[in-house]
Amino acid sequence: MSPFGPLSAVASHPIHLPTALSTDRLDRYWATSGPLRYWYGTALVTDPILAALQTFADQHNIIPTFLSLFGDNRLNTTENRAASHIWFRNNNRRNEWFPQVAEFCAQIHQSQAYDTVIQIGIGGSELGPRAAYHAIKRWAIKNGQVHMKAKFIANLDSDDARLIVSKVDLRRTLIIVVSKSGGTLETTENLTLVSDLAIEQGIDPAQFRKQLIVVTTQGSKLDLSDQFGHSFYLDEGIGGRFSVTSAVGALVLGLCFGAEPVSAFLDGACDIDALSQDPNILNNIPLLSALLGVWDRTILGFPTRAVIPYCEGLRFLPAHLQQLECESCGKQVTSEGLPIDYSTSPMVFGHTGTQAQHSFFQNLHQGTDTIPVEFVGVLRGQLDDTVQPDLVASWVGQISALALGRHHDDSRKHCPGNRPSTLIILETLTPHSLGSLVAYYENRTIFQGLLWGINPFDQEGVELGKLLYQQVRAGESGFPADLFSRIIG
Amino acid sequence: MSPFGPLSAVASHPIHLPTALSTDRLDRYWATSGPLRYWYGTALVTDPILAALQTFADQHNIIPTFLSLFGDNRLNTTENRAASHIWFRNNNRRNEWFPQVAEFCAQIHQSQAYDTVIQIGIGGSELGPRAAYHAIKRWAIKNGQVHMKAKFIANLDSDDARLIVSKVDLRRTLIIVVSKSGGTLETTENLTLVSDLAIEQGIDPAQFRKQLIVVTTQGSKLDLSDQFGHSFYLDEGIGGRFSVTSAVGALVLGLCFGAEPVSAFLDGACDIDALSQDPNILNNIPLLSALLGVWDRTILGFPTRAVIPYCEGLRFLPAHLQQLECESCGKQVTSEGLPIDYSTSPMVFGHTGTQAQHSFFQNLHQGTDTIPVEFVGVLRGQLDDTVQPDLVASWVGQISALALGRHHDDSRKHCPGNRPSTLIILETLTPHSLGSLVAYYENRTIFQGLLWGINPFDQEGVELGKLLYQQVRAGESGFPADLFSRIIG
């Protein structure tokens, strides 16, 4: 029997939002965790369904398992190692690495030798740090805390690195090279390319080497102190998509904005880590949100999930969440390797509002699939820190339109309604509240993985593509090489 | 009976890619249209299925309907007007508007008074032009054809405009304001904000007015010649998401790169318009691709579709396609308003490769849903215009991994394979080939709308959200206002 049988049973009493929306739901379907407020009155759940979700979470030992993330553990069963990103950002272990980052940033700022930092990395070494950098940038401008600007190079397409390098003064640029294994093709190729371009510009190679900083694991292929001016390490149990609160994110953010905002960012994450320990799902936003996600995906069968931040500073958040959620939970066997007969990760996508309203929202309102939406609303701007009522009214209007729909005699203008959404509200977007928002999505993702019985910390599906790439480049025979030769000619 | 009955019949003979991939498919499953090459050997089709798709297209009068787009028509039945973007970019009508754009750009370049252009617009007024701007930028740098740089302001969140304005010298900046109706909230608000910021900087309002250019329809709320230094018009039959080859895209591109590359961009689109008239689906890439999309979505039931350009210059293409495809085909009634019982637009999403490989590709390889992928491969770089074999091998590796899968004794490393993809190849990304690529996606989208029997030119689903926004702002009673007051307090 599917572990989701008990949940499927309560699904036989569905809710119809256009008739069910009430003052009661407006008053009661709220939860608060730190700087985050969560409203789920337009989720397709009722009190009995919430009670069943609580029972389901209790029966699957979700909180005890989550608690093991605060110390040594073997939750990444596939690779037989710990998932350690939470452990290393909380206070007992943060002291082992963050002071060095803070001190290095202070030295660089004091030297006034650099105005730019380029981070070379891909996947979690790019997406999380890039999202956080843009989310803090306007706050830092407003508060006079911009020390350096950051650029990111990720793509194997050399057009990425070449344009970025052409825009900066390499003599005044630090290069952070981020690769956990030290063997990431894109990152080593881009390091070589940027170094070649520096030499072309007449920069002395020995001097340029001092500008190179590596963030990797101890003993990796890039743990070569003679080739870098400085080395920072992360624990091997910190997965790329969970690494923004390690040196992978903290170093570039600290160089740009100073160590203090980065401390606040980490504290914001730790606040949510603490609040995520509450077994009562109505007090634990990440767990409640994870359960609603499982409800939408596995019980109601919705194949996708949109995340729409109504905040220009969060422009790069959806791309980060796409990796975080899809790479963690896009699995089809349990953590023990047993086949499963239910749906796991939806395809997550998103774009900032209000832009998304003028783009794919047509498909949300009148398409043939139901696409649950998570709205992320920020009440105050960063550069102009007053409340933006027009912006708030925009997402309120969209939540309402999706839920209520509209009868129209012209069927082409008819909107069916009953389309679910959830809402995360931040009063302001600061380093602290950003840390909370990031940890909310991380912990929500881990909870979903545990609820689905899968290992959210491995990513075995991406290995085969790398292997076949190598076969092509080695000139081996078979379909990949044949296709390659048809294309390259 | 569903119109798709005859197609469902051939679906009872499915293909299994790991066993079916053959030299025959490598040799024959190619099509060429202008600068585009298309390989569909890893689509889930066979010769009999292709024959059925040909019959289906023939029976639904797809080509005769498409041909009407080259002249006056009433294809946008909901709004009882023409769909005219193809008509106006082809030669007979291009002469009515493009020479003015070209002349204006030449005058501006000659004056040397400006180094930046800011385009204020949202939806199609932002996404298509932004995608095209970034796709041409590196080509123009390489070819010494950069006259001005462009920035785009779209969001109602004032943090968007404020950051952009802080980065430019407003005295040397032209502002293009794009709104077809002239009443788009975001655009009029951002125009006001930017004008206020100019006054704050001490710029004379009368002088600043001369720097404002409007692109709108004749007689719209923004057709106010005394408030703008210059006005350009587009036909009311040109929908926002199809407007990048009108003045909406041509003006900003012409100011940045000169009129000649824009001519080439339009010519590239017209080449595909001509080739899209071929009734033989094996010679008509947009039609074939549309049919394969309908096959994946409506017959095989796949709810999403990924587009992955392996080219840094195409970074903003997926966001444009998300609007183009989802706003055009996210409908649940026919163009006559009759209910339909089959699936229309999938949820389209994407990101550049190789970044996407290190992000959500896990979900493509081992997730519980099949997610068809369109790979867009560009053989040569723009800044370094040599062939990039590592990059080509990367997408060949991914296509192979999705199709072939891999048996592994550890089920956590097992990849099921048989996951479909298609491939568009460009030798180089130039203004001309970009125009062809854009028109390929436009015509593909129109074909899909016609195949589904829907009107791909309206977007009635987005109106309700605007209406409820207005109710909130007007303080009217009801659920939206109640939710708003719970949030704003």
Provide structural commentary:
2 copies of one chain form a homodimer. With 489 residues, the first copy, chain A, is of the alpha/beta class. Chain A has 3 domains: 263 residues, Rossmann fold, CATH 3.40.50; 182 residues, 3-Layer(aba) Sandwich (Rossmann fold); 29 residues, no CATH class. Chain A contains 21 helices and 11 strands. A 6-stranded mixed beta sheet of chain A has the order 1-2-11-10-8-9, sandwiched between helices. In chain A, strands 4-3-5-6-7 form a 5-stranded parallel beta sheet, with helices on both faces. The longest helix of chain A is centred in the last third of the chain and has 22 residues. Chain A starts with a helix and ends with a helix. The mean pLDDT of chain A is 96. Chains A and B meet through α3, α9, α10, α11 and α16 of A and α3, α9, α10, α11 and α16 of B.
Helix/strand layout:
The structure is a homodimer of 489-residue chains.
Chain A: H1 5-10, H2 17-20, H3 23-28, E1 30-33, E2 36-39, H4 47-59, H5 62-67, H6 85-89, H7 91-94, H8 98-111, E3 116-120, H9 127-142, E4 149-153, H10 158-167, E5 173-178, H11 185-200, H12 205-210, E6 212-216, E7 230-233, H13 247-257, H14 259-275, H15 285-299, E8 304-310, H16 317-329, E9 347-350, H17 361-366, E10 373-378, H18 389-404, E11 421-426, H19 431-452, H20 463-473, H21 479-488
Parallel strand pairs in A: 3-4, 3-5, 5-6, 6-7, 8-9, 8-10, 10-11
Antiparallel strand pairs in A: 1-2, 2-11
Helix pairs in contact in A: 8-13, 9-13, 9-16, 10-11, 13-14, 14-19, 15-19, 16-19
